[in-house]
User: What shape does this take?
Amino acid sequence: MADVEATSGNVPSDDEEKEIEEMRRQVMEMEQELARENEAVAIAALAGHPSLGGASTTVDAKAANGHSGEAVASPNETSSSLQAGANLDEDPDGRSIYVGNVDYGATPEEIQAHFASCGTINRVTILLDKFTGHPKGYAYVEFTQPAHVEAALVLNESLFRGRLIKVTAKRTNVPAFMRGT
Assistant: This one.
C-alpha cells in the first residue's frame, strides 16, 4: 500500500488534470481576446479614431489606402511624383501647413477632403490634449510637394464645418540657443 501512495503522489488526479486543462483554456481565451483588442486598436489607429490617439491623430494618406511604405505609387501617380515621394523626409515643414480654428469634431478625413483640391496630401495630423484625449483645435497638413502649400494658403479664412479656419505655412520651431543673438 505504501507503493501505491508513492506513485499516486507523482501522478496528477483527475481533478487536478481538469483544473490544469481549465487554466490552459482560460489562458488561450485571454490570448485570443488580447489579439482581438490589438487588432481593433490597429484598425482604429489607421482610421484616425481620436479617442485612441496619444498626442495626435494622424492619417497617412498611403496607409489609409491600404499601402504601407513611402515609395508605393498609386495608379494616378507619375514617376516625378514618385521621385518626390522618395525624398519626403528632406523637409516636411516646407511642405506642410498649419490649420487653426478647426472644429473639435473634425476628422482627418474631412480635413483631407477640404484640402484635396490643393494637391496630393501625404499626412493630416490633428493634435490632441495628452491628458483628456480631446482635440486642441488645430491641425497640420503635409503635402507631397512644396508647391501645394501655396495653393492651400488660398483657403485661409475659408469655411470648414461652420468655422472660419486660419491657414498658414507651417513654421519650423528653432530653439533659442540656435537662433544666435
About this structure: The chain is about 40% helix and 20% strand. Confidence is low (pLDDT under 50) at residues 1-7, 49-54, 61-86. The two ends are 95 Å apart (CA to CA). Helices lie at 2-10, 14-47, 61-64, 79-86, 108-114, 147-153, 176-179.
